[in-house]
Amino acid sequence: MKRLVTLNIHNYPIPVEINYSNIKTKRFYLAYGMICARMRDTDSLLSLQERLERIFKVNTIEKINRTPLHVSDFVYVLGNIEKCSYSKKGTFSYSTCYINYLGKKTNLKDFFLNYLAKRMEELENMMSLPHHNIRIKDMYSCYGLNYVNRKEIVIGQKLVHFSKEIIDSVLIHELCHDFYQNHSKEFYNIYSKYCPNFRILQKKLTYGEIR
Questions:
Q1: What is the DSSP letter of 91?
Q2: What is the C-alpha to C-alpha distance for residues 7 and 140, in angstroms, rounded to an integer?
Q3: What is the pLDDT of residue 26?
Q4: Whole-number Å distance between alpha carbons of 58 and 207
Q5: Strand 133-137 to strand 152-156: parallel, antiparallel, or no bridges (unpaired)?
Q6: What domains does the chain contain, in order, with CATH numbers?
Q7: Most Cβ neighbours (<10 Å): which of 2, 64, 139, 150?
Q8: Residue 85 belongs to what H/E stretch?
Q9: pTM
Q10: Which of helix, strand or coil describes residue 73?
Q11: Strands of 152-156's sheet, edge to edge?
């Protein structure tokens, strides 16, 4: 079960996405301009807040861009704000949110999957790589995964909110794993060849800078 809350971390209102789990190991990540936490459902929000203040220093928290990725009838799509509607009333979800993009009404999840498939093909051609199947899912500990042997790439669905350039940096990162299945110096050499400013773009994605 997941829950999105806002906690006061070092006197800053910070969105925290909690993924409740029965495992004993707690994990905390800063991604998409929010803190993603995996914890037991018996832990209180107060104890979580206190722990996050110990883990994340003030100068890290104050860099977070707290612009919401979606609010009411508006949602960021590819770095631009778009009007949206919902097939079901209730909390935001990628499968029930609809946008009018270039004059066509489309489900946000389907829109992003179609966008990624087309863009992936362009990048594969640029990098002289074979075709990969692509799918999206809710991910918080990483932005993407490359199952090299299956030629399948999985991309975090929250990336739909960010600019095309930031999305490209994640796609290229995963495609580079076709060359090196690690994060060695050689991996980053080829990554920087196809995405020279990847460090800047990664930092934007971490702190939630939409474009």
A1: S
A2: 18
A3: 73
A4: 13
A5: parallel
A6: 2-61 (no CATH), 74-207 (3.30.2010.10)
A7: 64
A8: strand 80-86
A9: 0.92
A10: coil
A11: 133-137, 152-156, 144-147
Asked if residues 86 and 98 have their Cβ atoms less than 8 Å apart, the reply is yes
For 60, phi then psi, to 5°, come to -80, -45
Torsion, Cα of 201, 60, 162, 203 (10° steps) = 10
CB atoms under 10 Å from CB of 92, counted, come to 16
* Chunked mean pLDDT (size 10), the chain, 211 residues: 89 92 80 90 88 95 92 93 85 88 88 97 97 92 93 96 98 98 96 97 95 90
Q: How far apart are the first and last CA of the chain?
A: 30
d(CA 186, CA 52): 34
Nearest-angstrom CA–CA distance, 32 and 135:
19
Residues near 189 by Cβ (< 8 Å), separated by ≥ 6? Answer: none
Both tokens assigned to 113: 């999957």
